[in-house]
Specification:
single chain, 7-stranded mixed β-sheet, 7-stranded antiparallel β-sheet, 3 helices
């Protein structure tokens, strides 16, 4: 009888201890979350105090994959399907095309006309796998980005740049493409725009009195291997300095919050070019 009573005493004590530990864990976890939130809010205030202007960033987390694609984009094998244009694939893999007869576009429906052009496989290889991106476009240079997994490639490895002259005529385009895209591992949570913006500031990627023109979540290349490349969800921020008309692009890894600076991966060098038409400097 005494033994049974001792058993019950130990059982009750164990349950009480378990409840106490669970309570302490929840309390500490809540405190840590609040502390992190308070720190983020403090840094946002510091940014504004430094004269950095930006819209209130979103606090909602997203999701994404690690994805892989072949380094050989396969465009050369499909050149024969194109008509009415002179196209060639450069040694870098980028396809350049000039229309033999410029195509006149409707000034009020440029986006729709260009989208219709992209949809025809005799005009653009895999053209239906791209969508128009207003943020990356500028007058005379209309950009379509490649759709992958549940997002889009926002760097130069998966884009079509359509050239339109002052007479609203489409004269040609350049194309890059990520071939044979596959997802790696299961979908994972990405950090919010707010956390990415704070990371950008903490990595000294934003100077005082500059402007965050926009922030976007998309895919960019993390590493280039021998035959394939790995892409990761990335927060890309367009930053304009106080005394410059150019917009510089900066990347934050949306899984880890790490800065993806130019030089982190030397194999990414072709995306470090200056897009002179759009006035954008791709800083990676």
């Amino acid at each position: 009888m005494n033994f049974r009573r001792i058993e019950w005493i130990f059982l009750v004590a164990f349950v009480v201890l378990d409840i106490f530990l669970a309570f302490m864990y929840i309390q500490n976890n809540t405190h840590s979350t609040k502390t992190a939130g308070n720190t983020t809010t403090t840094i946002i205030r510091e940014m504004r105090a430094d004269g950095i202007s930006f819209k209130n960033p979103a606090t909602k987390e997203g999701t994404g994959y690690y994805i892989a694609g072949n380094n050989d984009n396969g465009l050369k094998q499909h050149l024969s399907q194109l008509s009415g244009q002179t196209a060639r694939v450069q040694s870098t893999g980028k396809l350049t095309s000039s229309l033999r007869t410029p195509q006149t576009l409707n000034e009020d429906d440029l986006k729709d006309d260009l989208t219709a052009f992209m949809q025809q496989n005799s005009n653009v290889i895999h053209g239906d796998e791209y969508v128009y991106d207003a943020a990356l476009s500028s007058e005379g240079d209309y950009v379509f980005v490649q759709k992958v997994a549940d997002g889009e490639i926002l760097t130069s490895t998966g884009q079509v740049h359509l050239s339109v002259n002052k007479n609203d005529q489409l004269t040609g385009y350049t194309q890059s493409y990520v071939n044979n895209v596959k997802t790696l591992r299961e979908k994972a949570v990405t950090i919010s725009e707010k956390k990415a913006l704070v990371a950008l500031y903490q990595y000294n990627q934003v100077s005082n009195n500059s402007k965050i023109v926009w922030g976007r979540l998309g895919y960019s290349r993390l590493v280039k291997l021998k035959n394939s490349s790995v892409y990761v969800p990335t927060w890309i921020f367009a930053v304009r300095s106080k005394n410059s008309s150019n917009v510089t692009m900066h990347r934050i890894n949306a899984f880890t919050g790490a800065s993806m600076k130019n030089g982190n991966d030397s194999s990414e060098s072709e995306t470090s070019s200056i897009e002179t038409n759009a006035g954008m400097i791709w800083n990676f």
